[in-house]
Design brief:
This protein is of the alpha+beta class. It has one domain: Beta Polymerase, domain 2, CATH 3.30.460.10. 39% of the residues lie in helices and 24% in strands. It has 4 helices and 4 strands; from the N terminus they run H-H-E-E-H-E-H-E. Strands 3-2-1-4 form a 4-stranded mixed beta sheet, with helices on both faces. Helix 2 runs antiparallel to helix 3. The longest helix has 16 residues. The radius of gyration is 13 Å and the shape is globular.
Length: 102
């Protein structure tokens, strides 16, 4: 795991609890040696706990904004259900690292 992410695990867990996250995984360049601070973004796969329909957008966008603020980098936040491409999903599954699980 990237040291930038590893140093912030407690803060990430607090954000996940605040935004009703069931599970948060890291994937992409931040899981390997291809990460370039200042150039790379950070990719997360999120699964939320059951949230009332009217609160889902607040949880999703609030989490993304808080993660961007925490790391000072652009964050790509996706849900597993939104990934339709089976090759992309396989790539995520092969490299994802769990950061939080409720």
């Amino acid at each position: 795991m990237n040291p930038l992410i590893e140093r912030q695990q407690e803060s990430v867990a607090a954000l996940c609890r605040r935004h009703q996250v069931r599970r948060l995984d890291l994937f992409g360049s931040a899981t390997g040696e291809g990460f370039e601070p200042g150039r790379s973004d950070v990719d997360f796969l999120v699964e939320f706990a059951p949230i009332p329909t009217g609160q889902y957008a607040d949880a999703f966008f609030g989490l993304r904004e808080d993660l961007e603020r925490l790391f000072g980098l652009h964050v790509d936040l996706i849900t597993r259900g939104s990934v339709r491409n089976p090759y992309f999903l396989a790539a995520i599954e092969a490299q994802r690292e769990r950061l939080f699980e409720a």
